[in-house]
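Before we proceed, please read the two lines closing this message. Tell me what the C-alpha cell row says about the fold.
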Amino acid sequence: AGYFMTGDLGLLDAAGYLHFRGRLKELIKSGGINISPLEVEAYLRTHPKVQQAAVVGLPDALKGEVPVAAVELRAGESLSAAELRSFCRAQLASYKIPVQVVFLGPDEWPRTSTGKVQKMALCEVIAARLRASTAPREEGAPPCVPSSVEPGAR
C-alpha cells in the first residue's frame, strides 16, 4: 500500500472513521501559530444572526497573516463587526479572532459551479472591500495589509 498527498487534513478516530479537518493550503499562519479556518467558521456560524461565514488569511506586516472573516447575516438581521468579535472572545483564543469582518450579501460570495465558496477568490473580494473601506480599524486590531494580496496568492 501507499499514500497519495492530497493536501487535505484529517483525523482518524478510534473506530477507523476519517474526519475531514480542512486543507493544508488554507491554514492561516499567524505569528508562528497555525489557525484552522474551519474551526473559526464553525464557531461564527453558531451566532444566531449568522447565516454563513468563511475565514481566510490576509497578509499582515507583523504576523505574516491574520484571520479575516466574510459573514452573511440571516435575512432581516443586523450585527456589527465589533459585536461579532466580542462574541468570538467568549470561546476562541485571541489569535483566532478575525481582525476584520466583511459583511457580504447572498449574491456576493464567489462560488464554484457546484456552489462551494472559492476561498482564493473570496480572499480577493475581502481585500478589495477592505481597501475600499474608509472605516477606521477596530481598536486593538493589528494592521492588516490587504493591498499586498495578489491574484492567486494564498
